[in-house]
Amino acid sequence: MESRQAIRKDWDTYFMDIAYMVSTRSLCSRRHVGAVLVQGKKLLGTAYNGAPMGVPDCSEAGCMIAEQFEVEIVDGQEMMVKKERCIRTIHAEQNLLLFTDRADREGSSVYVTDQPCWTCANMLANSGVREIVYHRAYRKDSDKVTRLMEQKGVVFRALAAYDPPEQAIVAEG
């Protein structure tokens, strides 16, 4: 009888796969984001983006888009850049922090499908986590979030050579 041994995934792939599966719970029409909290090799919590519990989400009530303007340096010149954000949705990272204990976050890692925005990065930087691992870049805030994590000493890394599980791929608007 021939023995077949499955290829065992590395820990980064394993936890990012879980984050992507968690993201399938999101009803956001713009982006499905999942996050997981890990201490050592132990999974301590999961969360995804969406409206507060008991409140109609964007698929039911539409997105609540807020326009913000921010000064950025583009090709050595200051430019005013318009950013649009949905303010109905609680981000996956925010939900993760709301539903996990500070003691569990101390020295832990967060795996998130998308690079955190500025607000989430601030919250994570102050939450006790020592590492944030993400897959998809979030260009709107990337440079300043990277600088913040460097200043805080939080390991901040992308999984560039990662492919999400097929069943977690959701067409996004």
TrEMBL record:
Binding locations of Zn(2+): H91, C117, C120
Listed GO biological process terms: pyrimidine nucleotide metabolic process
InterPro entries (alphabetical): APOBEC/CMP_deaminase_Zn-bd, CMP_dCMP_dom, Cytidine_deaminase-like, dCMP_deaminase, dCMP_deaminase-rel, Deoxycytidylate_deaminase_dom
UniProt keyword terms in alphabetical order: Hydrolase, Metal-binding, Zinc
Known cofactor(s): Zn(2+)
Domain CMP/dCMP-type deaminase: 10-156
Keyword Cell inner membrane: no
Classification via PROSITE patterns: CYT_DCMP_DEAMINASES_1 (PS00903), CYT_DCMP_DEAMINASES_2 (PS51747)
Record-linked Gene3D superfamilies: Cytidine Deaminase, domain 2
CDD domains associated with the record: deoxycytidylate_deaminase (cd01286)
GO cellular component, one term: cytoplasm
Entry annotation: catalytic residues: E93 (proton donor)
Keyword Zinc part of the UniProt annotation: yes
GO MF annotations in UniProt: dCMP deaminase activity; zinc ion binding
Family under the similarity heading: Belongs to the cytidine and deoxycytidylate deaminase family.
Designated name of the protein: CMP deaminase
Species of provenance: Paenibacillus darwinianus
